[in-house]
Design a protein that fits this description.
Blueprint: E1 7-13, H1 17-27, E2 33-37, E3 48-51, E4 54-57, H2 67-75, E5 88-91, E6 95-98, E7 101-104, H3 116-120, E8 126-129, H4 133-143, E9 147-150, E10 154-160, E11 163-169, E12 173-182, H5 189-192, H6 200-208, E13 212-221, E14 232-235, E15 243-248, E16 252-254, E17 257-269, H7 276-293, E18 301-313, E19 332-334, H8 344-362
Parallel strand pairs: 1-2, 1-12, 2-9, 6-14, 12-19
Antiparallel strand pairs: 3-4, 5-8, 6-7, 10-11, 11-12, 13-17, 13-18, 14-15, 15-17, 16-17
Helix pairs in contact: 1-4, 1-8, 2-8
Length: 386
């Protein structure tokens, strides 16, 4: 870490999909960019894993087929490997399982779960069929020519009156930058931003906003279970919080036949995570609903992954200028999808684009042209010298 002595045009905090989009967009315009990520690997919730049956995608990743989403995908098309303009649409209404049959989902009635707003994102009538997010992550990692600091954390903002002059990393190292873009969990801003630059009403509002943890169950089936392309909402008729949302991917051939993956999610109150039994109870509830709707779903499982992710869902009502810039700090930008009303993957794309266009517009660069990949860009990730 002591070898990192450079000044940067921008420091991007958070190496998930949103952070990578912003960092690459600026990098391709010739900015000197530092990307800081707490974890060892970039990609956040969009990382995949190589299994013996191919590349594994984790988590329920869907994106609505809307004009705004398609526009954001096309805006980042070159960064995403030129795949965005080939996205096809899938029209399939959400279904639920009742009285032994699958029927169109029409609402919860009087038994509405507390996380109904998080479910609503997935209940889309039409969604895009797109390259898996892990492919996006791979493309973004390959073309980035800036500096990456994995396993490092921004612990403080370095202020100079109402401007940032840089950040403090791991509590010891000062890094200076003209612009700082924060793409982590929005709630962490409560501890990161100094009180004098965080309006009291804004701080109180953020503190009250509710974020949900997600419990994801990903299954690799040795044979196809369902031909349905619909989002499935499986729920108990007695317990409002016993809900599982998911889908089946199209089968793919492997050496012993056709493999099919399915991805399921439910939500847990953050405070409930303090008791491990609550996570176990949520997982048992998901399995119970899956078994009820698909009796053979667990018969031939090649691989499964269970993951609980803190603060993965929810909307943080943070008052920002143009939806992206911190009002009290003129060169501090928020790229977290949790402040974007579109939520989830759609929110990631939209917030990244808004940050980029607002930032380059403010620095008198044209915000109307999507970032282009330089022909002479090195397809490798640069790390700080040791």
């Amino acid at each position: 870490m002591s070898a990192l002595r450079e000044n940067f045009d921008a420091v991007v905090v958070g190496g998930g999909l949103g952070g990578l989009l912003v960092a690459n967009s600026l990098d391709q315009r010739g900015w000197r960019v530092l990307l800081v990520e707490e974890r060892e690997e970039l990609g956040g919730k969009c990382r995949g894993q190589a299994l013996e049956w191919g590349q594994a995608e984790f988590g329920l990743k869907v994106i609505p087929d809307t004009e705004e989403v398609r526009g954001n995908l096309l805006f980042f098309d070159s960064l995403l490997g030129g795949r965005a303009d080939h996205c096809g649409g899938i029209e399939a209404s959400p279904v639920t399982y009742e009285n032994g049959n699958f029927t169109p989902f029409v609402g919860f009635g009087s038994l509405s779960p507390p996380f109904v707003e998080e479910i609503s994102y997935y209940l889309m009538e039409r969604r895009l069929e797109f390259a898996e997010p892990s492919a996006w992550i791979s493309a973004l990692k390959q073309i980035f020519t800036g500096v990456v600091l994995p396993k490092h954390r921004v612990t403080n903002l370095l202020m100079d009156e109402n401007r940032l002059k840089g950040v403090l990393i791991n509590g010891v190292k000062r890094v200076f930058a003209k612009e700082v873009i924060y793409c982590g969990s929005a709630k962490n801003l409560l501890s990161l931003v100094p009180d004098e630059f965080f309006a009291a009403k804004n701080r109180q509002k953020v503190a009250r906003n509710r974020l949900w943890a997600s419990l994801s169950l990903d299954l690799w089936h040795a044979r196809p279970i369902s031909t349905s392309r619909s989002i499935h909402l499986l729920r108990s008729t007695k317990e409002a919080g016993e809900v599982a949302v998911g889908l089946f991917k199209a089968p793919t051939p492997y050496d012993k036949g056709d493999l099919q993956t399915s991805h399921w999610i439910t939500w847990i109150d953050e405070e409930s995570l303090l008791d491990d039994e609550n996570s176990g109870a949520s997982l048992r509830a998901v399995r119970r609903q899956l078994k009820r709707a698909f009796p053979e779903i667990f018969d031939k499982i090649l691989f499964e992954r269970i993951l609980v992710t803190k603060e993965s869902h929810g909307l943080v009502d943070l008052k920002l200028e143009e939806g992206v810039r911190w009002p009290e700090i003129e060169n501090f930008w928020v790229g977290s999808s949790q402040v974007n009303s579109q939520r989830n993957l759609a929110g990631v794309l939209d917030q990244a684009r808004k940050v980029f266009t607002s930032l380059v517009g403010r620095t008198k660069e044209s915000p109307c042209v999507a970032p282009e990949i330089h022909a002479n860009s090195s397809p490798s990730m640069t790390h700080p010298p040791t």
